[in-house]
Amino acid sequence: MTRQDDDHRVACATLTYLAEPADPVLGGLLQAMSPAQVLASIRSGIIPARAARAMNHAQAALLRTALGRWRSQLPRIPAGAALARHAAAGIRLICPGEPGWPPQLDDLGAARPYALWVRGAADLRASCEKSLAVIGARAATAHGEHATTAITADMASQGWAIISGGAYGIDAAAHRSALAAGGLTIAVLACGPDIAYPRAHRGLLANIAACGAVVSEYPPGSPPSRLRFLIRNRVIAALSRGTVVIEAAERSGTLATARHASNLDRPLMVVPAPVTSAISAGCNALIRDQRAACVTSAADIIALMPF
Question: What is the pLDDT of residue 47?
């Protein structure tokens, strides 16, 4: 690896410490400049000439404020972004454009992750080539968990990687059934990949890392927050080739992931539920408004996938 490669990786890692994912100002800079060039601009506090020429006064003021905010945080970043220390703990960094980077994340445009922190030895790019996101309610019913287990076990046994968010309810049922079927599963977290959240899932996340991957945009040690769960949802949608929703209330955060999948032109599917089920009101609304296809089995899902 060359010095330039090292600088690139350190810059990508450093940006994950400095800014929340999908920051529109930083995302805009990264569309015009390399991560190393952006980091140099942050350190100097100088707006790059190429960026300044394309900005009006208000945009330039916003960028100056952002540069100052990020620059003030530089002293707390560990040397070399602690890449060697994290690697020794089994956590690696994957940067855009590297061999292991899933190219479908590039569909997010300016909201593309600056980099991904990964716990687990699975080849993330290869794993996500044939993948399905399975998401739904944390307060899942027995019906929802049964449907999740049946569908994900069937998909996993046919070589599909199951992607979810590591939460209670549908997420946990999806991860566990994929593991029980001997398949590969990926958890996308809203905290550092070394953080067990929820705490009760410490063992589950360890099993996922052993057989698949625990993935995050946030560097090790980063705590979760409500906003981070919402931001994380776009990564679940972008990593997968399609998304199936199993139980989601009308105001569920799960529906945010569904919207991202739809905006990315990924197949969006829903498992139906009784019209009297409040926990599935959001799912039934997606079917009613013809925004998602109705599926009841792995065969239905596979028929709607792009390959």
Answer: 79
H/E element, 135: strand 131-136
Residue 258 C-alpha from the chain's centroid:
13
Residues lower than pLDDT 70 in the chain? 1-4
pLDDT at 3: 67
191 closest CA partner among 218, 168, 215: 218
Report the alpha-carbon angle 289-294-300, nearest 5: 150
Written as one string, the DSSP assignment of 279-293 is: GGHHHHHHHHTTSSE
Give the model confidence (pLDDT) of 94-104 as tens digits: 999 999 999 99
Taking the mean position of all CA atoms in its chain, how far away is CA 93?
14
* Per-residue CA distances from 39 to 28, 54, 111, 165 (Å): 14, 19, 18, 30
CB-side neighbour CA atoms (13 Å) of 240: 35
